[in-house]
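Quick one before lunch.
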Amino acid sequence: MTKHAAGSRKRQRPRGATVAAVLGVAIALGALGYATVVSVPSLASSARSESGLTDTGGLSAADGVIPGTVSIFNETYAGITHLKPDMLASLRKAAKAAGDEGIEIDVTSGWRSKAYQQKLFNQGIKEYGSEQAAAQWVARPGTSIHEAGDAVDVSGSGAQAWLVQNGRLYGLCQMYANEPWHFEWRPAAIESGCPEIYTNPGQDPRLAQ
Ligand SMILES: [Zn+2]
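Model of the zinc ion complex:
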């Protein structure tokens, strides 16, 4: 029931289909005896998320790669466990409160290694045509708040809307208008509210070279 909560429709469905397809391929490869470290394509890519790697070759879960989405309560993936401890605790508190309202908070990307961010950025350059255009969507390697363990990308519009509404109470803020899935750890927000959001990451002085 929680999975199909109102609001999570449009983006979720194609993504679910991709997940199924990719799992199918993974299972087929497994059956053929291929090594299990076959790249796990990010399933969020079709949703044009800044966390969506289409090719994770050379990266692994140790870089923060999450196959599809995982619960914020996951204890296995570095993408979750390497988040700042205070942020993770607060996120889990928020997820419990959201859960009481029937909304599940899952994550497509949390902590990332620099190699992961570099790969994302390279992919962005290919996709958007230039470094400058890519920087509107993807932080430059070495500057991403994900690398610091202070950001998560949340799956599903229901969870995103819930966090936009209530995240502040947990020190979690949306930062970019064009990234409704991206939330950062801003403990001061609990007292004084979230900062004004930027149109896109290209406007964020923290992400300049
Ligand atoms: Zn993000």
